[in-house]
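Look over both lines before class:
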Amino acid sequence: MVKVLFFANSQGKFYALFLVIFAVLFSTADISSGYIKNIGGQVRNRGSLIFSRSIALSVFTVLTMAGAFLFQAAANCIVFGKLEWGNAKAILSYFVAELALHYALVLICMAIAIILKNNVISMGIAVCLTMNVMTIVYGVVNSAIQKIGIQNFQIYKYTITGKLSLLPMNPSGNECLAAFGVAMVFIVIMISASSVVFQKRDI
């Protein structure tokens, strides 16, 4: 079934890995090439350049996720000789939730790349975000929070990488809303933070 394989690749952060690598390269390309110095002086608010960059990344994320889903469908049809989609509503709900989470992760990597201005370090952090390295960080944070008296708190439930791992294949309406809500919060924060840094930084 197409949905099962798409779910497996999403849970394994296979799509996320390609997206974050592109996000880092794309976010620093105009800085390293010097192009941003030419265009930066022609706009009143340089922070708006981050907004346009986020739109470009949103288009890339949508095309990548949709392309991966359709490619998976075509591969299933070729290999198995038939095509099983599953429940259309469930597929759409899961796809939209995953799309929002992946886009938020892309913007996190964009913000990291803009703030650090270092491709190597930014790429390393981006790759770590798509791997199980973050579970170590979450464990340390959870332990620190529990020591101050807050029990049964799990920070990964409120992070993008945590939601990517926790979102089930057949999410309920509340689970989709929770994932979408977390994604929107991170999207707003990352665009705002990147805009402020870019506006104040000497390019």
